[in-house]
Amino acid sequence: MDTKTKLISTAEHLFDRHGFTATGMDRLTQAASMSSRTLYKHAGSKTSLIADVLSGRHLRFQQSIEVDSVDALFGALEKWVQTEGCRGCLFLRAYGETGGDTPDIAKAVFTHKASLYEKIQKIVSIETHGKSNSELAEQVLILFEGATSAAIYRGAEAIRSAQTAASVLIQQARL
Amino acid sequence: MDTKTKLISTAEHLFDRHGFTATGMDRLTQAASMSSRTLYKHAGSKTSLIADVLSGRHLRFQQSIEVDSVDALFGALEKWVQTEGCRGCLFLRAYGETGGDTPDIAKAVFTHKASLYEKIQKIVSIETHGKSNSELAEQVLILFEGATSAAIYRGAEAIRSAQTAASVLIQQARL
DNA sequence: GACGATGTAAAATGATCGTTTTACACTCCA
DNA sequence: TGGAGTGTAAAACGATCATTTTACATCGTC
Predict the structure, then answer these.
(1) Chain B partners within 8 Å of A162 (Cβ)
(2) What region holds the HTH tetR-type domain (chains A, B) (predicted)?
(3) Which of left, alpha, beta for A130 (phi over 0: left; psi -120 to 50: alpha)?
(4) Residue B103 in contact with residue B162, Cβ under 8 Å?
C-alpha cells in the first residue's frame, strides 16, 4: 500500500477509536510504522491530516450509500456499521472536538452533511413520485442521524427501527 | 455562587464549547477564576471533573424533559437548545473523545441514555394507551437523538421536523 | 556512477499537558 | 487567642504535545 494511503487509513482508525485530540502524532507514527519526518512530508500538519481523513471518509461513505430507496439507505448504514464499527458520526465528532473553530475541518463537515441531505432528497423524491415536501427528506435525514447515534449504545437494532420508521413516513406521504 | 458549583458550570461550558481534551486545566482555572490548588481540592482530577459535569447535566436535562407527551418532549428539546446551544449530545461527545475507555465517563453516558429511553417509553405508553410496542419508543428515541445531531448543522427547524415525524408515528400506532 | 527522490532513526525544539507543592492571607468558631 | 478550614499566587513536576532538524540509507534513472 502506498505511503500516504497507509497514513490516512491508520489515522482514520486511530481518530475513530481514540478521538482526534487524544491521538498523538507519536502513536500515529508508530501505528503507521513510519518516521515522523515522512508523516509530516505527506500530512503537512495534524489539522490537514484530519481534513484529509474526513474527505477520504466522505468519498468512501458516499460510495456506500449509492442506493435508490430509503430502505436500501438504512441497509447501507447497517452494513457500514458492521464493517466500520459504530462510534457515532466521525464528522460531527471532529466538529465537536475542535469547537467548529478550525475552518478546514468545519468545511469538511458541512460539505459532507450537505451532500448527505441532497442524496436523501433525491431518494425521497423518487420514492414518493414527487409528492414529497422538503420536510420529509429532513425527517429521513434525522432518522439516519439518530440511528447513527443510537447505534452506539443500542446496537444495530436501532438502525432497523429507524428503517421501518422511515418507511412508515414515506408510506404516509404517498397518500 | 458556591465554589464547586462555579467550577462545574464553568467546566461544562468550556467542555461543551471547545471539547473535553482540548480544554486544559489552565484555561479552566482562569475561566473559573480560582487557583489550580482549589480546583483540584474540589475536582480531584480532570476525569472526575468530567464525570461530575456529566452527572450535573444529566439532572438538569432530566428536569427539562419532565413532560407527559411526545409533542412536549420535542418542545422541551427545542427550549433546551435555545438556552444551552446546539453542539450535539455532550454525553456522546465525551464517550467519543475518551474512546469509551474511561469507566466513570462511560458509565455516566450509559446511565443517561438508559434513563432517556425509559422516560420515552413511559411517555409513548401513555400516548398510545398501552397499544405501543417497544420499537415505537426506540423510534422516538432515534428521532430525539437525530434532532439533537441534525440541529448542529440544520438549526432548530430540525427539531420541529422530528416533532411532526414522531406524532405521525404515534398516530399510526394508535390505529 | 552521480543524483534526486523517498525513506529511516533519533534527538531537539519550545509549548502545553495534568498535577503537586511551597508559601501566604483570610475567616469563623471554640 | 489560636487553630482548622478555605482560599490565593506562583513555581515546579515529569510527561507529552506537534513539529523540525540532523545524519544516514536505499532506491530508480539519466
Answers:
(1) 139, 142
(2) 1-61
(3) left
(4) no
Q: Give the model confidence (pLDDT) of B97-126 as tens digits.
A: 999 999 999 999 999 999 999 999 999 999
**Helices and strands in chain A, H and E counts:** 9, 0
Question: Per-residue pLDDT tens for A21-57?
Answer: 999 999 999 999 999 999 999 999 999 999 999 999 9
Interface test with A, best of B142, B148, B160 (most A CBs within 10 A): B142
Q: For residue B72, what are the CA distances in angstroms to B41, B144, B159, B160?
A: 41, 12, 12, 11
Please name the residue ranges forming H helices in B2-133: 3-18, 25-31, 36-43, 46-64, 70-84, 90-98, 103-127
Over the Cα atoms of chain B, what is R_g?
18
The answer to whether the CB of B80 falls within 8 A of the CB of B148 is no
Could you tell me the residue ranges of all domains in chain A? 1-44, 47-174
Nearest to A140 by CA among A158, A116, A156: A116
How far is the C-alpha of B163 from the C-alpha of B169, rounded, in Å?
Answer: 10
**CATH match of A1-44 with 3.40.640.10:** no
Answer whether B102 touches A (CB < 8 Å): no
Question: What SS3 state is found at A32?
Answer: coil
Contact check, Cβ <8 Å, A139/B161: yes
> Which cell numbers in the block locate residue A3?
505511503
Grid cell of B9 as nine digits:
458550570
Domain topology for A47-174: Tetracycline Repressor; domain 2 (1.10.357)
Contact between B41 and B30 under an 8 Å Cβ cutoff? The reply is no
